[in-house]
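Your task:
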Amino acid sequence: MKQLLTPALYLLALGAFAQEDMPTIFETKLGHRIEHTGTGTEDRGYSYAASDKEITVFNNKTGAVRWTGKFKDLTPKLNKVDELTPFWESNVLFLFDRKMGKDQIACLDLADGHLLWSTDKYQNVTEENVVYIKELDGFAITLKDKLVWILARTGEERWATDKFKGVVGQYVVTNDGKLVMVNFMPNNLAALFTGFKNQIAKIDLTNGNILWENSYVGRAERKVVTRDFIYELNVKDDKVFLRMNGMQVYDLNTGANIYSAAFDFTPEKLVGEPAGAKRFGVYGAVAEPVIVGDDLYVLDMSSRKSQYVKKYDRNSGKLLWTSPEIKEARAIPNMYVQGDKVLLQIGGNVEAQAYIRRQERQSDGTTETVEEWRVWHPNVKPNGIQAFNTTDGSLAWDSERFRKGITNAVVVDDKFIVCSGKELYSMDVATGAEQYVVPVAKGGVGNADQIMTYKDNVVVIGDKGVSTFSAKTGELVAQGKYKKSDLEDYEGDRMILKTAGSDIACFNLNDCTYKQFNARKGATTSLSTEGDFVYVYEKKNVTKLATR
């Protein structure tokens, strides 16, 4: 006799598998292929899609074409575009045309497409060399032998200096209108610079005078795809704080070193570089420093064979203690201070980003250049969990449970929750005892690729969907099964998973229901800053979808 589902179980099963398509707000067909995209915020109200010869700017609400044109008509000195970069805050679109020593740069107004200015004065410039500084509405452009400052809307050069080498990285505007900034050298520009050195400087942007300069430890970078800085620069009172592989502190007025609790670390060979990668980076292999009141906790990863936790006085830089060795940890992605314990996640997921350009053979025998901007989270071994006492740095406990695998670990309230990929463990912070162990298979979405937090729940991003568990009890809260996919983006209570074929599902983290959209392979997707919409760019089509 067949067993029938009860009405409640039937509805649960139906909810797990019957999913809606994301409502279409608009679909706009362009008159050219889409090879470059830029999605403006909903408040800004417009976005663009371009090939190397044409561009279209469209309205975010309706999809109506705002303006369109061929680059050769918009910018008479450019026949094609090798690279285009939007600077949204200045409403300017930079266009680059490479011509073997006769490079052309042109700037268009993003709002209406009119030409602002063009020049062949600057050679070997890419988007990596150009930084927009909104406070003064200008661009700092790094050349081989100097840094030049030009006005954004006119291209007028105001000054140049040869005393600042490399590209302007993160910066802070001081109360007296000066800039403190850090330089860096992107991988693809290494051959451009001679005499490069790590440099932090305070500069008067009205005339280019360097008021002071000093050196820093480490390597300042921006991520390959998302363009986030992997360090943080800020000013508090009369001190400059540079958080990069630890903490470095300078006097704001003189640039003198106050103290350094930093080390040099390069994540070489942690992750294999994908075939066809033109740019590649690995991030998050070392946990950021943790500040608790006047205490500063820093991971020292300067040696490949032994690592340490160090505690400093945040104000003076005095070293208070050094932990016992953490032997041969290739990566320590997370460090938390909870109560009187420092908690370490050894090994597990790091972040990798790559710009890939490759040739693909089409069905008609022709080849086509395919660009891919990939973000993924590979796993690094060895794995483990350790805890140290905040009072003296002594080892409090060490769990053997995670030697075979770990994705990542999170703290929710007073719970230290660790995921092995197959199970969730709630660890007692004081002793390391397991408070509960829950198989992630209960969520029905395969093994966990990574976990995150949302409200009081642990979000499990699985091989085939998303599930949530109560951080307090480990009980399953909700589940949503989808195809094999990876995390693409998330904002607020909305999370996008994307398949290898570019299909997407947008999950509601409150109940793990989702809406889906089947896209063409190779499509680019962009989640709006509020999480309410997804823009899909494929071939010649732009589609806007609602996530709610």
The radius of gyration is 26 Å. Confidence is low (pLDDT under 50) at residues 1-17. Residues 266-406 form a domain with the Thrombin, subunit H fold (CATH 2.40.10.480). Residues 250 and 258 are 5 Å apart (CA to CA).
